[in-house]
Amino acid sequence: MARTTPHDPPHASPHTAPSTAPHDPAHPEDEPLYRRIATELLGELRDGAIPPGERLPGERQLAEHFGVSRETVRQALEVLRRDGLVTTDRRGSHATLKGPPVETPAALAFPVGARYAGRGAMARATVSWESPPPGHAEALALSPSRPTLVHRYWSASADGCELRTAVTSFSTIALAEVEELARYRDRADGTTAAELRRAYDWLRRAGLTLHHRDTITRIAGTPSVRVTRRVHDQYARPLEITELIVDAQQDALVYEFTLPAAV
């Protein structure tokens, strides 16, 4: 996403042109900066960077993204609110462009490979606070010995033939910005049952737009395959990595995709 070169006034009314500061040369021929930011933000909303109904990043994040002050971001959001393109409630600002709100896309079930446990089927999920498995630390930009929240999922069909195991590690960014995940740290003893099926909803409601990449590889000498999912946000910051093991002879993975609505 393009960044705006800041020419940001300390305080400017949304009804007047921004004032001039010694370090902030004026451009009288241009429209006010807050209106340019409003236009750029609207363009990103229409491009699907933030789907309809999803929460926008906070003022601080938007200010860093566009290279302007939080005051300019506030003025830009007010322009979009007046035009009915953004709405604000106690949870923050949300895009209101036409299109269905994104709630629980089937392609982003957590963890990857999780499924409904039918009659006789078994499933178990736990969390622990420990050093991530090999390869996870690098993917999450963590030092190898730094502990983080690790989620383990196990499921089997009634006859025990279809077995899935998944291990997920979360980044410090995910834990810092998602209150629901951070709460698990104090009870992450590796034995207590953990219900994180709504983890992706929590990430989105924290203002993060999720991008995922799934890689499927065969495990040599076995009938199993490994699915590795890496999820990052709209700023390319890593959020989580999951490794799922599935017996390909006994089980099958089904991927479903929900495309953003055209605007």
TrEMBL record:
Residue numbers spanned by region Disordered: 1-31
PANTHER family: GNTR-FAMILY TRANSCRIPTIONAL REGULATOR (PTHR44846:SF17), MANNOSYL-D-GLYCERATE TRANSPORT/METABOLISM SYSTEM REPRESSOR MNGR-RELATED (PTHR44846)
Ranges where the HTH gntR-type domain occurs: 31-105
Protein name: GntR family transcriptional regulator
Keyword field: DNA-binding, Transcription, Transcription regulation
Domain of life: Bacteria
One Pfam family linked to the record: GntR
Species: Streptomyces chlorus
Phylogenetic classification of the source organism: Bacteria, Bacillati, Actinomycetota, Actinomycetes, Kitasatosporales
Keyword Transcription regulation: yes
Keyword hit for Transcription: yes
Bias-annotated ranges (Basic and acidic residues): 1-10
Gene3D superfamilies: Winged helix-like DNA-binding domain superfamily/Winged helix DNA-binding domain (1.10.10.10)
